[in-house]
Amino acid sequence: MESHADEVMLEYDGLFRIYRSGKMDRLRCPVRAPTGLDPVTGVTSKDAVIDAGTGLSARLFLPQHSTKLPVLVFYHGGGFLIESAVSTVYHGYLASLAAAAGVLAVSVEYRLAPENPVPAAYDDAWAALQWAASVQDEWIAEHGDVARLFLAGDSAGGNIVHNILIKLASSPQPAPSIEGAILLHPWFGGSTAIEGEDAATAKDMAMIWEFACPGAAGGADDARFNPMAPGAPGLENLRCDRMLVCAGEKDWAAPRGRAYYAAVATSAWRGSVAWFESEGEGHVFFLEKPDGEKARELMDRVVEFVAGA
After folding, report:
1. If you placed Cys at 240, which of 11, 46, 149, 181 could pair as Cys (CB 3.0 to 4.6 Å)?
2. Residue 155 annotated to the active site
3. pTM for the full model?
């Protein structure tokens, strides 16, 4: 007979299962993509160790080029619980992004919860940005232009981008200057569903966040998960020049993404923010259907944004 501790609290979309005891099962193991030359995109990739002590590393993607490239630091999604910068899914997306946008991409392999609860992921994300900006890697030194530095991430990675932009405002050390930030279907939440948000989904998302970050102040209204919560740092503190926020029309995260975009647009922040919505598409559809028409449209918009449009 199943004990109370072994009770399943949530099984999410065939991806993971959370137990009352605090245990979690990952139901799909990411397939690791090899590094090297991708004959389809012409992009070459390699792995780099950033901090051997914590295990922090990154996968770098270098497209064919004739001039110095903007450097784009990317944070993958997965609710802080699953996925990897070196999985075939993210490797394929980053190779395509590097080729299309003409960027040297640094895809961060941050620590996952519950083995390493949040804020480990934020700490790793910050350390990886500092590493990239300080030009410690030979590829970045030879091929990158860190005067044109971008942050990007999908889902939980989009959440990470927001939190890094806020942290930059209060950093006691010299902070990198971020030209642009791309939040792809960012994962935000709160203790109460907002307009357009399904109440059951909001509750599940709150549970996942509190599992990943058991020390969260205010639970799902922790400012890192709910940037519009009372007491959250003002959005005027975002430290980048430009921002692109994206969602799918049928994305469960879209209501929070729209609310975030509207809050940024009406704040005292001096940057420029744009919204892009993919008609008829769901959460991170571009990873599942990278060759589809809507995924190409989204990629085109990201490329335009990096180019300054």
Report:
1. 181
2. yes
3. 0.97
